[in-house]
Amino acid sequence: MAGQSEPPNVPDLSAGLSREEAIALRESFDAAEQERIDQTVATLLSLLGKTHTMAVLSTFAFAEGPLRFSDIESELDIAPNTLSTRLQDLTEAGLLDREAYDEIPPRVEYTPTEKAESLFPVFAHLHHWAIEYDL
């Protein structure tokens, strides 16, 4: 994290934090770093709030290996233009890698990046929540 302050004892975030722990962690950063983190969270939530973005990422969270456009389209029943836009958004955000193969017919595969994979526990948590609660 070049140029960014890091508190000396960053807890293991894999198990989640209590509200109190989250507040203490946030307050351990200086004001500039808090602002950077807040902006990053706001940008992420804006991206995740776009139609079908969460569904697309969730598909990758539970998939084994790369996915093709047609795999995602058939699984989620999303209009092709919307799915194409979301895949482009996620690729531009560094959450997906896109690999086009020089074949006929053309083949394109999408793979989640390390950055996306670090979000996957969120989907597991949401599914766990849905097991226990109903809206």
Task: Tag the structure with descriptive keywords.
mainly alpha; globular; 2 domains; 3 strands; 7 helices; 3-stranded antiparallel sheet; Arc Repressor Mutant, subunit A; 135 residues
Briefly, what is this?
With 135 residues, the chain is mainly α. It has two domains: 17-48; 53-135, Winged helix-like DNA-binding domain superfamily/Winged helix DNA-binding domain (Arc Repressor Mutant, subunit A), CATH 1.10.10.
Could you characterize the architecture of this molecule?
It is a single chain. This protein is mainly alpha-helical and 135 residues long. The protein has two domains: 17-48; 53-135, Winged helix-like DNA-binding domain superfamily/Winged helix DNA-binding domain (Arc Repressor Mutant, subunit A, Orthogonal Bundle). It has helices spanning 19-27, 31-48, 53-61, 69-76, 80-92, 114-117, 120-132; strands spanning 67-68, 96-101, 107-112. Strands 1-3-2 form a three-stranded antiparallel β-sheet. A hairpin with a 5-residue loop joins strand 2 (96-101) and strand 3 (107-112). The chain is globular. The chain starts with 18 loop residues before the first helix and ends with a helix.
Low-confidence stretches: none
Q: What is the N-to-C succession of helices and strands?
A: HHHEHHEEHH
CATH architecture descriptor of the largest domain: Orthogonal Bundle
> What topology, given as strand order, has the largest sheet?
1-3-2
Number of domains: 2
Q: Any idea what the radius of gyration is? A: 18 Å
Number of strands: 3
DSSP helical segment count: 7
Distance between the termini: 39 Å
Instruction: Give the CATH level 1 class of the largest domain.
Output: Mainly Alpha
CATH superfamily of the largest domain: Winged helix-like DNA-binding domain superfamily/Winged helix DNA-binding domain
Largest sheet: 3 strands, antiparallel
